[in-house]
Amino acid sequence: MALFQEIDPLTFAGGRIVGIEPHSVAAELDLRPGDELLAINDQAVEDTIDVQFYAAEEELELLVRRDGEILLFEAERDYDQALGLEFAHPTFDVDIRRCNNLCEFCFVLQMGPQFRRTLYIKDDDYRYSFLFGHYVTLTNLNEHDWWRIENMRLSPLYVSVHVTDTELRRRFLRNSHAGDIMEQLRRLAEWNIEVHAQLVIVPGFNDGEWLARSVRELATLWPEEGAGGVVSVSVVPVGLTKHHKYGMRPHTRAEAAATLDYVETLQREFIDRFGIRFIYPTDEWYLVTDREVPPLDNYDGHELHENGLGMVRAFLDDWAVIRREIAVARTMPAPRAVTLATAALFAPTLRQKASEFASLTGCDVQVVEIRNERLGETITVAGLLNGSDVLQQLRDAGVGELVVLPRVMFDHPDTISLDNISPQDLANLLDRPVALADALGDVWDALRGESKLMYRPGVAPAGTIDLKVLGNGANGSAAHLS
Predict the structure, then answer these.
(1) Which of 142, 225, 328, 455 sits at 20 to 30 Å (Cα–Cα) from 381?
(2) What fold characterizes domain 108-309?
(3) What is the pLDDT of residue 463?
(4) Strands 135-136 and 15-20: what pairing?
(5) CA distance 280 to 257
(6) Residue ranges in the chain whose pLDDT is less than 70
(7) Residue 234: which of 306, 174, 172 has the closest Cα?
């Protein structure tokens, strides 16, 4: 078997199979959980992208390692028949490729002690960009990576640009070897790869004229119909924890307002030129300046929620629908005392809509604004809340019969917070049912007993918590080691 990439089948890190889809090619071949897929049709596989690409053929040869033995399976696949393999990890060679930059605003470099282990990993993996929408800098790609992007059409990609000037970007990334980002983006455009660009704006560094220049240069790569290029630019304010060491500062309200004004001016220009706004400020710019977030149509169909765009508007639009549903409900759950917790940035919006929710349902709704003591009060978003802060501050405030927490706070495969605390841990320690929610519709579901993310007290959690650690509200717990 002549492999495109020569491998030693006994030592090559293949893809460990953990699940088999019924009626699939893998099921017909009697592949099993625990088997390791090494190659497809003489092509070594280093991730699920390779598997999808090379398994598209109708005739397949699968090289598999089972308990140290090398096996070759042959199959003919129907056109619409799935290969049917689930893998332990999306990448087989390494868990995730590490970042070779030292950005002064990097969140990993701003972490304090005793947080979730994965928060100390600086990742920068173009494969995760394609698969999951992670933003990457393109500074650690080799020629094999570029070959794969071109030939496997890995589109779209999400790229952290920050500033288009090469020398300033190198200082920004603290990487003197970073390539010319505009040259790299032009290369992707020539290959018909779509790119969603991101600019993290630091006052006094890449704002003002540098921001204007970066956006203008990125706009030169706007694609013609059916071609590749830069299709969106997200503008994100820098986030700084109390552990930050390099003298950067967050925007003042006036600076945020000036940036937002400028971006909105550009949007009007790009609507005339491209038919879309092209550049999109994250929700935070609107919230810190007390401005109304734009309608969902203003995001031109881009799904950029994970980058903080459109989440508040989605919440408000969802509430507009749910409030009509509540108003015509034939049966109403018994009124209850409900405690909603969120971070400082979203608290004013939530209080306003929670008051409307209370009027419609008859519930006593309390909104508790959680201060981020562990990362610092400059961190004001719900996704970065810590379980220990939530526990201590809810205890101090007193809670109702039902506690509702932001689902995004536990956005991890193990459903744990940044400091390794689970919703079940909090339900047990507060002695209250805890529901997770993205919107008030989820709260309505919880009141009616229809929540799929409800944790009741008295259930053993996955791990054990050091109550002394949680009690002082200053440190993390060792409940989970992930």
Answers:
(1) 455
(2) TIM Barrel (3.20.20)
(3) 58
(4) unpaired
(5) 14
(6) 1-5, 462-482
(7) 306
Q: Taking the C-alpha atoms of 235, 236, 238 and 240 in order, what is their torsion angle to the nearest 10 degrees? A: 180
**Which DSSP string do the residues of 130-165 spell out, in sequence order?**
HHH--EE-STT--HHHHHHHHHTT---EEEE-S-S-
Burial 388-405 (b: 16+ CB within 10 A, else e): bbbbbbbeeeebbebbbb
CA distance 283 to 327: 29
- Going by C-alpha positions, the residue among 88, 90, 92, 93 that lies closest to residue 18 is 88
Query: In the chain, where are the structural domains located?
Result: 15-87, 108-309, 314-471
- The H or E element spanning position 119 is none
pLDDT tens-digit readout, 47-82: 999 999 999 999 999 999 999 999 999 999 888 889
Residue with tokens 């619409």: 80
> What's the pLDDT score for residue 393?
98
Class of domain 15-87: mainly beta
108-309 matches 15-87 in CATH topology? no
- What are the tokens at 446? 């919880």
Separation between Cα atoms, residue 50 and residue 63, nearest integer Å = 14
pLDDT of residue 462: 67
Please give the pLDDT value at position 5. 60
The answer to whether the beta carbons of residues 246 and 204 sit under 8 Å apart is no
Helices (H), 398-466: 423-430, 440-447
